[in-house]
Amino acid sequence: MQHFYDAQIRRYILQFIRMMSNFSYVTGKNSKGESETLQVPVKYGDMSRQVAQILKKGSENTLITAPQISCYITNMAYDRDRMYNPYHVDKKHIREREFDPTANAYTGSPGQSHTIERIMPTPFELTFNADIFTTNTDQKLQILEQILVLFNPALELQTTDNYLDWTSLSFVELTNVTFTSRAIPQGIADEIDVATLSFRTPIFISPPAKLKKLGVIEKIVMSIYDEEAGKVDLDGILGTDLLTRKIVTPGNYAVLVLGNRITLLGEQRKNNSTHVNNIENRVFQSQSQFGNKINWLRFESLYNKTITNGISTIQLQQSTTNINGDDIIVNVTGTVSIDPQDQFTLLVDIDEDSIPTNTLNSVDAVINPLTFNPAGAAVGTRYLITEDIGNKINTDGKTASETDIRASDNDGDPSADTVPNFAEAWGTTIASANDIIQKNADGNWDRVFDSDQNTLFSDSSSYLETQYVTNQTTGIQFKWLPDQGFWVKSYEGFYAPGTWSVQF
Prior knowledge:
By secondary structure, the protein is mainly β.
């Protein structure tokens, strides 16, 4: 817990001392036959040994002056009767007037706006004592008469003038009066007489409030429902009869996330529907250009805010599907900064804790099994494959083992650049592109993720979960889309307007 100290209890003590101050007494007549009115001094009674020695001037023969009033706390107890919901948070929106530092005055224009989140305070009850030291009964009666008439039975107490402080008002209630400290009969003792007044004060101790700058509207959701006038249909409200829904962000900007770089996009060249769940961000397919690049400084001017390097954050919203067919929103977050070399690029440091949890064990690599030699692979090695192996038929009508793989090094004779075909090296293994295979103890490869069994076809009535797996070689996480039947990068790709936001 971070240290904080607001001197709250100290303020209650100071207010109580002020309450006991400015009382006076009248002495006997002086040499001129006149009476004098003197003020009774007030001290805090919880005196340290060092302070006491200073006041006594380092001598045990120094007498305590009287009259005087000593104030101190005798008890502090938790007040369960005044306990409220400890988890309640009260929010207040504050708008300031603009301050002109040159003129040292407020203007008529609006200034900064803030949100104050007040945390529920903790109730306590303080017990105060006020000891009245006097040398004679007349002094005591004068002081008591001035004090006691004020408490009928209590006085209000205000610790601060901050109207946002919901604990500033309390009261001090007189609960008991001990008229004298002397024994009866008094005898011939010459000690100073002490009258004690006891008070109770209910207080609150507040934790620090959260102060936030009031943000601007980042997303507008407009919905039109098929509802009859005067009728409330929960099915319609929940979306069964939803006619249209449109999500809009200021500027209607989209973003493209590639690695640790984010590009702000304006007018889109393709329809948003083609980019649902980053469909075009295929594992084995180059990323398309989705729109015109926009300078991030233009985005800042739209909000009249500044992206602070390493402090401002971005939130990327995706949807995933569970086994029940429910759409679950996944928010990937990270701190951002504008690239000092390229104002069209935002650099992002993704929070690893916000990345979806893997549903499958990590793979050692993503490979093309027709050009990759698996010899020497250890038992337990896992690969995500990009081509069919075994007797799977490829698009050219040949089996995987019959496919001739060729490439060119641009020497003008591509026919001479034959790439070795390692289809036979997988033995009797039969697997499809997008499958995950694992080497077992007898040297064969098992199909541990069957892409065919995890793909939803048009006639399917079941639901399949979105799967996540990480490539240990590159550290990139991939996401399996069962409704599309292929892998995409987990959070990289295109984000349409309304599916991302920046917290300055």
